Every structure is written in structure tokens, then in C-alpha cells.
TrEMBL record:
Keywords: ATP-binding, Carbohydrate metabolism, Glycogen biosynthesis, Glycogen metabolism, Glycosyltransferase, Kinase, Nucleotide-binding, Transferase. This is Maltokinase. It catalyses: D-maltose + ATP = alpha-maltose 1-phosphate + ADP + H(+). Pathway: Glycan biosynthesis; glycogen biosynthesis. The lineage of its organism: Bacteria, Bacillati, Actinomycetota, Actinomycetes, Actinomycetales. It holds the Pfam family Mak_N_cap.
Amino acid sequence: MMGGWTATPTELAEATGRWLTSTRWFTGDPSDGVVFTHASPIESSQNVSTVMFLVRSGELTFCVPLTFREGPDSREGIGSQPIGNIGQVQMWDATDDVDGQRALLNLLSADRDDQAGAFRLSARPIRSNFPAVASSHRLTSEQSNTSIIYRFVDPDDGAAGIILKVFRVLSDGANPDVELQQALDAAGSHAVPRQYGSVRGAWDGNQTDVAVAQEFLVGALDAWQVITGALAAGNFEVSDEIRGLGSLTAQIHRDLATAFGTATASDDAREQLVGQWRNRANRALADAPQLDQYREAIDSVFASVSSVQWPPLQRIHGDYHLGQVLHVPDRGWVALDFEGEPLRPLSERVQPDLALRDVAGILRSFDYAAGTTVRQGGDSQAAASWYEGARDAFLAGYGELSESEEALLEALMLDKALYEVSYESASRPDWIDIPVGAVRRQFASE
Ligand SMILES: Nc1ncnc2c1ncn2[C@@H]1O[C@H](COP(=O)(O)OP(=O)(O)O)[C@@H](O)[C@H]1O
Ligand SMILES: O=P(O)(O)O[C@H]1O[C@H](CO)[C@@H](O[C@H]2O[C@H](CO)[C@@H](O)[C@H](O)[C@H]2O)[C@H](O)[C@H]1O
């Protein structure tokens, strides 16, 4: 590190452990402790240096870039707070430090391609000749990873800046968020932001994306904000743009099928997917015992689609909901965050699936928007009919479904609601009534 100064893994763990285990992205068990296992220097000067660390906690590996500063001169004008210190050297989360932020972005344009070392970083630039950066700041909204926004001095072909996301929990294998958005961008799709590149990390036989950079879309609100804002204001009219969201979704599916191909839904593949739905249902019933009375009914919905005709399987978004779509001024809808559902292992998330799973995701999100409106005192009748109108408009934009696709969509909506039961029970118990209500309604007439 700077000036030959080094720190041992034990010193690092002692100095940062408390901060690390209290971050939003630390999804481990704090009682497992943290172990600094690997380090890869990013940038170093006489008294400031930035290093990318891998930190192990239980079974999980976290990506933790840190910036070190030695001496008062190196700290002058730093707006953010240090997270700890080792002797005279103070440490910052690099995503929250102006020099750390610059070093992380420089990784993309520095032609870095490590051939040796225990933790090797390689840049995979796409549009690497971007303009000079005027300012940078960390995104403050709630997110599972950590993003930094860089504003250009002058726009680059209309783009006002870059948003760079550092992936926090690493697993072996290409990150679908990077793989799918880069493939869509390369195919000329405007359904995702323009891509600037990504950084790969390799260690102990593992290889994955540690960061990705894309066009920062200025002034965008996500579809959840747009829709719940309108409903909260008492506007229950179904906007034409919902039909447009359906068409955009169909286009994304066509482009992903072209880029990655499709696979016949063989008996084995169906059995595997329906098996996953059953596992999720079992987990949801354990998390919400009040749904146990529907155990058989759930099982028979899943059993009934085993025998209908399935369309070919393909790569999909995988966690498609209204919060994953931005409404961009003068551009319209743009989809984000193709990482898949956080509760599923990566190996499942990259398997070909039913594209209708994404359709189910958005329809469930319309139900959440209606449910939230009612929870906040909105008119329940108006919210229920808005839901039906929004569903019909989205499906009209998506394209006609066959009878068997409709049956599959119903099963996938049930599966998604059951996933949400577990998600809410772990993350937001106050919200659990929304998916629980959806499961109940599905069986109300039986
Ligand atoms: N290209 C972008 N332009 C503008 N805002 C973005 C962009 N990408 C992400 N965001 C904002 O950052 C938030 C988090 O991004 P996301 O990719 O969902 O991160 P995470 O994987 O951490 O959940 C989004 O909900 C959105 O508000
Ligand atoms: O955005 P993430 O990839 O972290 O997705 C997870 O969190 C979502 C909530 O932030 C959760 O979405 C559920 O709540 C949304 C409203 O907040 C709603 O629009 C979605 O339809 C509903 O599923 C998502 O399930 C979870 O994976």
C-alpha cells in the first residue's frame, strides 16, 4: 500500500468488522465474524491508496473496496466519514471516498488485466473513451449492492454520466445483471441503459463480475414511484404507458432469446422448475402457517401445469417488478437489475426459464401497487379495478397468450406470491398481507 505501509488481515478485520456487519449489503450472520482473505491494489500514491478486498463471513464472500489515508494532508476536503483506523492510517469505504470513487472508475479505462496474484482484476471496457468526470457521489437509496454516480463535464452522445455498481456478494460465475444487459446493449436494444464496461475478479478457481458501469439516466423515476404516486393522488385511470411496458417486456424477451437461444422444455427441465416452485411453496407455508389450508390447492395448481404445453425456455430478467423499470424523460421505459431474485442461488438464476415468469412478476407488482394504495387509505374498489385494467393493458402490449400459457401464468403468479410471502416475512413483515391476500384470493372461489 502507500509508502510501503501494510496491514494484516487481523488488523483489517478488527478495524472494520463492526462497520462491515452493520452495512445494508452485509447479508451474513454477524456472529460468524469476518475474515479478510484476498486483496488487490487498485491505486496508490504517497499517502492515499485504494485496495479491493474479499471478505469471508460464514459461507459468503463480500467485495469490499477500501481507501486508506495517512496524515492530515491526505484527509483535507474529504466530505465523508472514515469507517475506522489502524494506528495513524484512517480507512474509508472506497465507494464513499472521492479518491476511492475515482480509482474504481479508472479500473475500467486502465486496461487492467492481471495475469498473476491470488486475486486478479481485469477490465472489460465497452465504451471506455468517456468524457472527463466533474463530480461523483454514492447513491443513497436503499439497494442490495453499492452504486456511485459520476457526472460528466460534457455529455457523451447524450449521456450525462455513468453509474458504477460494485457487487457486494460474490459467487462463482458471470453475474446475469452484467451478462444480460451487455448482450441487450450489444444487440442495439434501447430497453436497457448504454453499457460502459465491467470488471472481472478471479480468485481460488472462482471468477465473477465485481463491478459494472452504465449510462446514468438523469431525472428518472422508477415505475413503482410513477404508478403508486398516481394511485395515491386518486388517479385510477390506467395509463397508456402500461401497454408500452408490456410491449417493451416482449421485446426484451425476444432479444434475449436471440442472444442466448432457447431450449425445449423437456420433461426433466419442467420437473426441475416445478420442483423449485414446490420448494418455494414449502418455505412460504413454513413462513406463513396461516396459508397451510391451501397446501393441497397450491399443489394441484402446480400439478395441473405439468401436463399442459410449455413454450421454449430462455434467459429472462428473473426479478422483474415495477422497481426495476425506470421511466426516463424523453425516452420512456428502461429496464434494470437483471440479477434475478436475491433469495435464489446463482446457479438457478442463470438457468433458462419461462419468459412468463417476468410477466407474472410485473402483474404481482401491480397487485402490490393496488395493495399499498389501499393500506394508505385509498379506495379498495377503485384499486381492484385499476389492477384489472393495468393487467389487461400490460398483457395487451405483451402479446396474445395461448390457453396453456394462461394456465402457466396463473401458476407463476402463485409461485411469485409465495416467494414474496417468504421475502416479506424475512425483510418487511408489515407487508406480508399483500402476497398472503393474493394467495387467498386465488383460492377464494374454491
Ligand atoms: N442507469 C441508471 N440510471 C439512473 N439510475 C439508476 C441506474 N441504474 C440504477 N439506478 C438507480 O439505482 C437503483 C439501484 O439499482 P439496481 O441496479 O437495482 O441495484 P441493486 O442491484 O443494488 O438493487 C435503482 O432502483 C435506480 O433508482
Ligand atoms: O429489488 P430486489 O432485487 O432487491 O427485489 C427484492 O425486493 C423487492 C422489494 O424491494 C421485492 O419486491 C416486492 O415488493 C415490491 C414493492 O416494494 C413489489 O413491486 C414487487 O412486486 C414485490 O415482489 C422483490 O420481490 C425482492 O426480490
